[in-house]
Design brief:
The protein contains 11 helices and 5 strands, in the order H-H-H-H-H-E-E-H-E-E-E-H-H-H-H-H. By secondary structure, the chain is of the alpha+beta class. It folds into 3 domains: 82 residues, no CATH class; 70 residues, no CATH class; 52 residues, no CATH class. Strand 3 and strand 4 form a beta hairpin. The longest helix is centred in the middle third of the chain and has 23 residues. The radius of gyration is 22 Å and the shape is flat.
């Protein structure tokens, strides 16, 4: 197919460069995880520009389409990295089954990408990641999507989460509440992944935590 294309339209050097192809494939993978309807149209335009003007044209974000393409890929890649660093699992044993259940509460469809990282790290466990689109599951080396409902209760009864809330509450000083500083450590859109982040933006919770037992 490549030979026929180049015979018809002329040589395209970057199509013979494995690194450029891998970079483009990676960017396309992440762009398609961005939650908008026009990803296919955008990717088609960007690939057309790369064929007409060279890979550097899109890699350097020269056109408006290439800039949007790059920004979407960057946002999804960043969320994927945060998922690997911030996701915490609850260990569950159901008879002979051993599960690790976590959550990925972001709008980007990355749970099925992140799950393989943990499946390789914990091969003896069934990995479950709850996401907006359902439960991503790796069981005995095979991936599937399932309903989240059967797994949600495991996270609600997370003792570590309760212990950390107790510790954080005991250290909390209302006068030192600093949302801006908190956002430097963990961007606000990822607060749902950390125990204190779930409460720090809720004035009612902060008011309650600010009360000291008499």
């Amino acid at each position: 197919m490549l030979a026929r294309y180049e015979q018809a339209f002329g040589p395209v050097p970057w199509l013979h460069c494995e690194r450029d192809l891998e970079d483009l494939a990676s960017e396309v993978l992440f762009v398609f995880r961005f939650p908008v309807q026009d990803n296919l149209s955008l990717v088609t335009q960007v690939i057309g520009q790369a064929l007409d003007r060279g890979f550097a044209y899109i890699a350097n974000r020269v056109s408006r389409e290439a800039k949007v393409f790059g920004e979407r890929a960057h946002q999804v890649r960043l969320a994927w990295g945060k998922a690997l660093g911030l996701m915490r699992f609850v260990r569950v044993e159901r008879g002979a089954e051993k599960l690790l259940v976590g959550k990925c509460p972001v709008p980007y469809r990355i749970a099925d990408l992140a799950i393989w990282h943990f499946a390789r790290r914990f091969p003896d466990y069934q990995i479950v990641i709850l996401a907006p689109e359902g439960a991503a599951v790796v069981r005995k080396g095979r991936f599937c999507w399932e309903l989240s409902t059967p797994y949600e209760g495991f996270l609600k009864n997370d003792r570590f989460d309760l212990w950390w809330q107790t510790f954080y509450k005991s250290q909390y000083i209302p006068e030192r509440r600093n949302r801006t500083l908190a956002m430097h450590g963990v961007p606000k859109k990822y607060w749902a992944w950390v125990t204190e982040g779930q409460a720090i933006d809720d004035p009612r919770v902060m008011e309650e935590w600010g009360k000291r037992d008499s």
